[in-house]
Design a protein that fits this description.
alpha+beta; about 300 residues
Length: about 300
């Protein structure tokens, strides 16, 4: 919901030198470690301070730019995925994805500071959920936003999915949560271009023992959702809310087989466009959507 969530999520992951899945260093085999080991107390204090500083920054930013504390606390009934919602539900999946990515970033950072993996997979998503919750509390004091329990639920789903995926390796081998996104460089805020975003849950064949050793390991199934024409509706001729299934190529597995192991990790979180064949259903026109039969960004005027 807030523009810098994706920036913060990605940046936090990159800053964490030992980020499990966001290591973009393709050639180096250098292991990044702390200059010295932290005691349990030092580690705990660092985590507490990081969360408090983050909360303070969000609050200050909200007061300066998001009209925080300009009204008494108010509730916002934003709805879910209906045709009467502001973004057709895309923002709700945005909360799931951003909290999921923030969980990765915080967990990776905590591991870099010396926390063991078992604890980081708990405290990472907790910090992400706390961070998102602080913004939601700030929204309650905003005339433009308001507190949304729907957002809190979706934040919880995102944090929970990260925990389950890290806790159970078999789940991580089989499931990815990804964002497909081609920015529209027209001056609009690139981080809230819901008309250009698709959210994908991918089932990877490589995670199944029966397919991991043959050609099928390069395939995967998709369950995706996107909306067009809800955000900036005045620029669109019609609205779309499309749920689709697809069969595609596991780009991460392809790159990994070519030796690009570290780079391949990126595509566990980003869905490369045009690497799958989707079959969808549009809830606004009550019609089926054939593969690539409609404009990628919707029916713009």
């Amino acid at each position: 919901m807030k523009n810098f969530l994706f920036i913060l999520a990605l940046s936090t992951s990159l800053i964490a030198g030992q980020a499990k899945d966001f290591d973009f260093n393709i050639t180096s085999t250098t292991e990044y470690t702390m200059e010295k080991s932290l005691t349990d107390e030092e580690l705990r204090n660092r985590i507490i301070y990081a969360n408090l500083i983050g909360a303070a920054v969000v609050t200050a930013w909200g007061v300066a730019f998001w009209d925080y504390f300009t009204t008494d606390p108010v509730m916002a009934d934003e709805g879910w995925f209906g045709d009467d919602t502001k973004y057709g539900g895309a923002d709700k999946l945005g909360h799931v994805y951003s909290t999921y990515l923030l969980s990765l970033g915080f967990a990776s950072l905590y591991e870099y500071w010396g926390m063991n993996e078992e604890e980081s997979m708990i405290y990472g998503p907790l910090s992400a959920w706390f961070f998102q919750g602080i913004m939601e509390m700030g929204d309650s004091f905003s005339e433009l936003q308001g507190f949304s329990y729907e957002d809190i639920i979706m934040n919880t789903v995102g944090a929970g999915f990260y925990y389950v995926r890290e806790k159970y390796p078999s789940v991580k081998e089989k499931l990815d949560l990804r964002l497909e996104y081609i920015p529209d460089l027209n001056g609009e805020d690139p981080f809230t271009q819901y008309n250009n975003m698709k959210y994908v849950l991918a089932v990877k064949f490589s995670g199944f023992e029966s397919m991991e050793s043959n050609f099928l390991r390069y395939g995967e199934l998709h369950l995706g959702y996107y909306s067009h024409g809800y955000h900036n509706y005045y620029d669109y001729e019609q609205k779309e809310r499309v749920l689709y299934v697809g069969i595609g190529i596991n780009v991460s597995e392809v790159l990994s087989s070519m030796g690009w192991i570290k780079t391949s990790k990126v595509f566990n979180y980003y869905q490369l466009p045009y690497t799958y064949v989707p079959f969808g259903y549009d809830f606004d026109s009550d019609s089926y959507v054939a593969p690539y039969s409609r404009p990628y960004r919707g029916y713009t005027k």
